[in-house]
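quick one: NAP bound model?
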Amino acid sequence: MSTDAIRKVCIVGASGKLGQYLVRQALDRGYEVVGVCRERSVPKLAAFADRITIVPGPTNDRDVVRKAVAGCDAVLSILVPWGVRQYSSGTAQAVLDFAEPGARLVFSCGWHISMDGEDRYSWRLRTTIRIVTPLARLVRAVDIDDQVEACGRIFASDRRWTVVRGSDLEEGESQGLPVWSRHVGDPVLASNLTRRVDFALFMTEALTDDSLIGQAPAIVGRLSPSARAHAKGAA
Ligand SMILES: NC(=O)c1ccc[n+]([C@@H]2O[C@H](COP(=O)([O-])OP(=O)(O)OC[C@H]3O[C@@H](n4cnc5c(N)ncnc54)[C@H](OP(=O)(O)O)[C@@H]3O)[C@@H](O)[C@H]2O)c1
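yep, here:
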């Protein structure tokens, strides 16, 4: 399927902050939208209720995902490491298994995911991950390793995927399409801050950017100091 043929998009995790930006941007582009979110979160999508189809249920429920992605040309998935019941890997696997052949698949995660082991992390990020991962698992709140597992499965698949790796996020008006690099540690990414709306923008734009297929871009705000310094250097 060609990316210019995208008409119908499924958003898995549509009720969250990132998900709601994705819903708005997909509707603005004229796509038909199917959103998946937990039953209790359906009211969060009230503003879009008459313009999208909502499939309520846990995003790692295979039947829910199978139903939601049917007939969709693309799937935007928010991978979140909640709980210790394979929430991320279950979501990713279901999308990989049931999305239409040739569908464009775009997933979100954080900088801590590495596709090729070539990322160079700051001491601060390494320490945070090292401390937070076992503690969060201990209290059964978050399983960061499961997000790593989810992305490993995506990287190994022959689907038309992109994994967008977000920096620290902030709210605020769009600054435009984020700048990206293949590896965390590259100077352009040093500011480590992106507007959440622009994280969504990068994912939405990726749907029609075939050069991002099979890539795991790490992004940073286009007006962040490191991105500006990089642009100035390039000029
Ligand atoms: N936050 C950051 O600083 C940051 C940094 C880098 C990358 N990212 C990435 O950005 C993406 C979005 O993260 P976000 O922090 O901005 O959050 P978000 O967009 O608000 O999304 C959170 C998602 O998690 C779901 N959720 C919350 N509690 C849950 C639970 N107990 N069980 C199951 N699902 C639950 C929410 O669904 P409901 O609406 O049903 O609650 C929502 O879909 C993720 O892929 C994350 O890895 C975030």
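The chain has a mean pLDDT of 93.
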